């Protein structure tokens, strides 16, 4: 495949945009080469500026769970746009999507919409601090909760890909309030809580991690966090920006039966428009302005186009819950096929999967936390990535990212992908 025009466009972009991209993971820094410029997308496919068709396993990093340009979402946005694009005043559709989201997700009475996952997590932590009147938070090494200051400490994903897990610009004052725990290590979290008794506002976690590849929680881990939080008056915050409305209607809380106190959303909830949200029981949410003292606001929050896209997406998922089992089956098929051909070719690997999240690690050891995720052979991943790209398959340009499966993929697409992995495996 030829990527000439993409490279030319990247040249131009770099003159006016830092690194040529508006979000770092879009650059191919970790794998080498120039990023692909997209012209349009439909269903499971991206069409780039060179006229190539690519099977897409990123799906805008998660939102396009039903494929690109999904007609009910596109039509809802077009119809809304004709009536004005922003008012900064209340609209009925905000209540409609709020009521629908609350009916789908356990343990929440109220929800507030923002414009990104970053904003949702940043606001959730402020709310947890305001509610508990404590300052410190616990986050897990390798978990990513957006790019606000408190979280850019041993953050996974893009931050690790670019070798800056701790970003310059985050003050030591801010960093000292973020305590770091090891994913899937309950004993270590307990020690941290004991050592900081009475000072911790919340534990924030990706209940199924997706930013160090896909790492599901080991049995009893989330339940243990719940018990620990209850014993110490700590709020448990589930960052369901990736997992919400993807792993089940009600997210990980429903899937694994563990209740959180505050839940954050992004990606699927906006149907591909810039939307995030955070939600909790009323007792907590009523601490937010204008009811309570915890300030949080947004000129474009609850934007009508974003709400129309989100409402159309959630309606589809609510009315057709078989979508969740359908994508789960497709992901399992892909997992089994890739694992088979990698094994046949003696390529050491571990594939992690939960629901429609999956990641391939070039290491034989179990991948259960950041340290084990980082053991993967990155040179092999680079070869794998470019091998896939040259065969028209687009996976995330970093070994620390999860693949997001869309229901628009056909079994034929999956077979083509498995065949490509088989061909690449011979030279890995
Ligand atoms: N939380 C998680 C778990 C995420 O994966 C992400 C983004 N990948 C965020 C928060 C931040 O969301 P956004 O990029 O929309 O700010």
From TrEMBL:
<dbReference type="InterPro" id="IPR015422">
    <property type="entry name" value="PyrdxlP-dep_Trfase_small"/>
</dbReference>
<dbReference type="InterPro" id="IPR015421">
    <property type="entry name" value="PyrdxlP-dep_Trfase_major"/>
</dbReference>
<keyword id="KW-0627">Porphyrin biosynthesis</keyword>
<dbReference type="Pfam" id="PF00202">
    <property type="entry name" value="Aminotran_3"/>
</dbReference>
<keyword id="KW-0963">Cytoplasm</keyword>
<keyword id="KW-0663">Pyridoxal phosphate</keyword>
<comment type="subunit">
    <text>Homodimer.</text>
</comment>
<dbReference type="InterPro" id="IPR005814">
    <property type="entry name" value="Aminotrans_3"/>
</dbReference>
<protein>
    <recommendedName>
        <fullName>Glutamate-1-semialdehyde 2,1-aminomutase</fullName>
        <ecNumber>5.4.3.8</ecNumber>
    </recommendedName>
</protein>
<dbReference type="InterPro" id="IPR015424">
    <property type="entry name" value="PyrdxlP-dep_Trfase"/>
</dbReference>
<keyword id="KW-0413">Isomerase</keyword>
<dbReference type="InterPro" id="IPR049704">
    <property type="entry name" value="Aminotrans_3_PPA_site"/>
</dbReference>
<comment type="pathway">
    <text>Porphyrin-containing compound metabolism; protoporphyrin-IX biosynthesis; 5-aminolevulinate from L-glutamyl-tRNA(Glu): step 2/2.</text>
</comment>
<comment type="similarity">
    <text>Belongs to the class-III pyridoxal-phosphate-dependent aminotransferase family. HemL subfamily.</text>
</comment>
<feature type="modified residue" description="N6-(pyridoxal phosphate)lysine">
    <location>
        <position position="267"/>
    </location>
</feature>
<dbReference type="InterPro" id="IPR004639">
    <property type="entry name" value="4pyrrol_synth_GluAld_NH2Trfase"/>
</dbReference>
């Amino acid at each position: 495949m030829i990527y000439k025009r993409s490279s030319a466009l990247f040249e131009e972009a770099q003159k006016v945009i830092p690194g040529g991209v508006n979000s770092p993971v879009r650059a191919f820094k970790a794998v080498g080469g120039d990023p692909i410029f997209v012209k349009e997308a439909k269903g499971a496919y991206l069409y780039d500026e060179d006229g190539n068709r690519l099977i897409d396993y990123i799906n805008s990093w998660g939102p396009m769970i039903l494929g690109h340009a999904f007609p009910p979402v596109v039509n809802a946005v077009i119809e809304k746009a004709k009536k004005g694009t922003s008012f900064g005043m209340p609209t009925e559709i905000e209540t409609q999507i709020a009521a629908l989201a609350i009916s789908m997700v356990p343990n929440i009475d109220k929800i507030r919409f923002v414009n990104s996952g970053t904003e949702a997590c940043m606001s959730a932590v402020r709310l947890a601090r305001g509610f508990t009147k404590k300052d410190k938070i616990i986050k897990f090494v390798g978990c990513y909760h957006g790019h606000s200051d408190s979280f850019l400490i041993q953050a996974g994903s893009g931050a690790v890909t670019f070798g800056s897990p701790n970003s310059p610009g985050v003050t030591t004052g801010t960093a000292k309030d973020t305590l770091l725990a090891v994913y899937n290590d309950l004993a270590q979290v307990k020690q941290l809580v004991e050592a900081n008794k009475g000072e911790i506002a919340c534990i924030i976690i990706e209940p199924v991690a997706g930013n160090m590849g896909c790492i599901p929680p080991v049995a009893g881990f989330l339940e243990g966090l719940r018990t620990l939080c209850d014993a110490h008056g700590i709020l448990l915050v589930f960052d369901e920006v990736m997992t919400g409305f993807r792993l089940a209607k009600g997210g990980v809380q429903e899937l694994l039966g563990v209740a959180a106190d505050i839940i954050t959303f992004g990606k699927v909830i906006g149907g591909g428009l810039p939307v995030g949200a955070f939600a909790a029981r009323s007792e907590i949410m009523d601490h937010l302005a204008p009811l309570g003292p915890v300030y949080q606001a947004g000129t474009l929050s609850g934007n009508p186009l974003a709400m129309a896209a989100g409402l159309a997406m959630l309606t589809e998922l609510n009315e057709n819950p078989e979508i969740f089992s359908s994508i789960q089956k497709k992901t399992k098929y892909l997992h089994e096929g890739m694992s088979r051909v990698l094994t046949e070719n003696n390529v050491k690997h571990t594939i992690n999967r939960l629901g429609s999240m999956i990641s391939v690690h070039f290491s034989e050891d179990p991948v259960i936390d950041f340290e084990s995720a980082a053991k993967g052979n990155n040179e092999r991943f680079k070869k794998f990535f470019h091998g896939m790209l040259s065969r028209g398959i687009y996976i995330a340009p970093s070994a620390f990212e999860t693949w997001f499966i869309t229901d628009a993929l056909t079994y034929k697409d999956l077979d083509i992908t498995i065949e490509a992995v088989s061909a690449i495996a011979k030279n890995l």
